[in-house]
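Marked as duplicate of an earlier ticket. Keeping the data here for the record.
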Amino acid sequence: MNHSRTFSRRATLASLAGAALAGTATVRASASEQRGQHGGYGRTVRFATFNASLNRATEGALVTDLSTPDNAQARNVAETIQRVNPDILLINEFDYVAGGGAVRLFLDNYLSRGQRGARPIHFPHHFTGPVNTGVPSGVDLDGKNGVVTTPGSDAYGQDAFGYGFFPGQYGMVVLSKFPIDTRAVRTFQHFLWKDMPGNAIPPGYYSDAARAILRLSSKSHWDVPVRLGHETVHFLVSHPTPPSFDGPEDRNGRRNHDEIRLWADYIGGHSRSAYLYDDKGVRGGLRPGSRFVIAGDQNADPYDGDSYDHAVRQFLDHPAINLPTKPPTSAGGVEAAKLQGGANIGQLGNPAYDTADFSDTTPGNLRVDHVLPSKGLLPGRNGIFWPTSDDPLYRLVGDGTTVVTSDHRMVWQDVRLA
């Protein structure tokens, strides 16, 4: 990607609207129709990421909400998934419940039931696991209030390994129509930030005790191998911390940068990844030549927002990643930037690429959710589920003032196995 080129939102809003509309129309086409048209190039698989905001303020509340089939937000999330019809999906901000009970409730009570005319969708395979959010560190990480170990407060969240009111808040889950090689999954929940060479830990901010135990991943990093016939594609998923809610030390911005860097190093060959160790103590990164898809709410826009040192460009400029000719787009993002104005007007990025509807005072709407295939995978159709206000499905995204489903949009990318 040529980052020397920038975009004025005012100049491009009208001209991009027509092109973005094509991306909206694509998502309504039958997924099976799209996937049957690629001849000898092999099967086409749709990967997607969706920060669905299925997090709750108290432990156990998500299970309660999903125990019946009539929770309005969960129905909206399920319908969004059914409309896009991905084959392999990462859901961010899905509270982790040991044993997978919340996932099974969502599958049974929501995804397996057609929502408002959408067809049911079935994912026979899933993976979820513990995350760092809300897990007490036992150390005064923020240098305030001493060590807080009672869940349920901001002060507790600030001292947790990843910000959260209780263990598992803002967790993740991978859903798949294809088998997951669960024995080969690698997780990096416990990797220490200090063990990344040349890390961006803010100088002088953390105490020695904090530096000694602080984990890099604010949730976790998972390498989830998915079996596509005789081939394996590694689904590399994460949810870095937002580069905000901090002070001049920029601790969250710096952590976000290094959480993104973990995957950039993991796919960068032995010289870059040798320092890494997973939660089983296995060292090193992904074997060269392996196929992968990186997905998640990276909380980083290549042009706008508060990210540290253009963090997500570590992906967009990476030689192992095979970027599509055109990034995923939507007409809804273009319309929202125009109607909401505010911070959106002065941004540099293309509004058709936005994936999140944030405050119009600051930072404005941003492109923070990414699905990025590797070399060896041929990117095909893609899109962002963000209908315009004249679309009947607009009810699933809303105008940004009232969040009816999530402040993020689902992003999808079709790939063919070369």
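See parent ticket for discussion. The longest strand covers residues 44-54.
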